[in-house]
Design a protein that fits this description.
Oligomer: heterodimer
Largest sheet of chain A: 6 strands, mixed
Structural class of chain A: mainly beta
Order of helices and strands of chain B: EEEEEEEEEEE
Distance between the termini of chain B: 37 Å
Number of helices of chain B: 0
Number of strands of chain B: 11
Largest interface: A-B, 26 and 33 residues
Helix content of chain A: under 10%
Shape of chain B: globular
Number of strands of chain A: 12
Chain lengths: 116, 117
C-alpha cells in the first residue's frame, strides 16, 4: 500500500522569504502522480501543483516549484516570495495511474504560517 | 472556471438519522470521488465512482454508506444511520480522463461540514 509522509507538522516563514515543505512517499508503482494541495482556513482544497512521475523535469507554477527525486521518493514544495495569503495547511498527495480514475492518498499536512 | 459545488455547506443531524450530501461535479468530468476529513486530521479517501458504478472504496466506506448519480449532474453520498464519529468535513471531487491511463487533477468542492449530535 502507498503511504505519504509529511514530517513537518508546522512551519513559519517571513513574508517575501522562501520556504520548503517536505514530503516523502512509499510505493512500488512506477507510474503515478504527485500533488500539493493547499487548504486555507476556509477549508477549501485547492490544487497548487502536480508532477507526473515519468517526467524528469520538476514542475513549476509561478512562485511554487517542486523538487522531485524519484529514486529517493521525495517530493518537496518550494514557495518563493512568500505572501500572507500563502498561510494554509499544505497536503502532499499521491495517486497511481489507472483507467478508472484514481484515489488520492494524502499526507498528514504541514501548517504554514507566513508572518508579516 | 468551472467548479464542483456541494450542498449544504453545513449539515447538523441527530445520531441515527439518515443524511444525504449532494455534489454537482464539473460537467465534462467522468470520475467522481468522496473524501472525508475529521477535524485536525488528514483527508481520507472514501469512494470513487466511474461509469455509473463504484470503482474503488476504502475500509471506511462500509454498509452505512452509499453513493448515487441519480441524474446527469448530481452525485450524492448517503449515510444511512449516522454515528457521532461520522462528524467530519466531506469533500466531493471530480476529474476528467486524459489518455488511457491518465487523468487530470481532481477538483474539489468546498466541502460539507457534517455535525452529528
Amino acid at each position: 500500500a502507498q503511504t505519504v509522509t509529511q514530517s513537518q507538522p508546522e512551519m513559519s516563514v517571513q513574508e517575501a522569504e522562501t520556504v520548503t515543505l517536505s514530503c516523502t512517499y512509499d510505493t512500488s508503482e512506477n507510474n503515478y502522480y504527485l500533488f500539493w494541495y493547499k487548504q486555507p482556513p476556509s477549508r477549501q482544497m485547492i490544487l497548487v501543483i502536480r508532477q507526473e512521475a515519468y517526467k524528469q523535469q520538476n514542475a513549476t507554477e509561478n512562485r511554487f516549484s517542486v523538487n522531485f527525486q524519484k529514486a529517493a521518493k521525495s517530493f518537496s514544495l518550494k514557495i518563493s516570495d512568500s505572501q500572507l495569503g500563502d498561510t494554509a495547511m499544505y497536503f502532499c498527495a499521491f495517486m497511481k495511474l489507472n483507467n478508472q480514475g484514481g484515489k488520492l492518498i494524502f499526507g498528514q499536512g504541514t501548517e504554514l504560517s507566513v508572518k508579516p | 472556471e468551472p467548479e464542483v459545488t456541494q450542498t449544504p455547506s453545513h449539515q447538523v443531524t441527530q445520531m441515527g438519522q439518515e443524511v444525504i450530501l449532494r455534489c454537482v461535479p464539473i460537467s465534462n468530468h467522468l470520475y467522481f470521488y468522496w473524501y472525508r476529513q475529521i477535524l485536525g486530521q488528514k483527508v481520507e479517501f472514501l469512494v470513487s465512482f466511474y461509469n455509473n458504478e463504484i470503482s474503488e472504496k476504502s475500509e471506511i466506506f462500509d454498509d452505512q454508506f452509499s453513493v448515487e448519480r441519480p441524474d446527469g449532474s448530481n452525485f450524492t453520498l448517503k449515510i444511512r444511520s449516522t454515528k457521532l464519529e461520522d462528524s467530519a468535513m466531506y469533500f466531493c471531487a471530480s476529474s476528467s480522463p486524459s489518455g488511457q491511463f491518465s487523468n487530470q487533477p481532481q477538483h474539489f468542492g468546498d466541502g460539507t461540514r457534517l455535525s452529528i449530535l
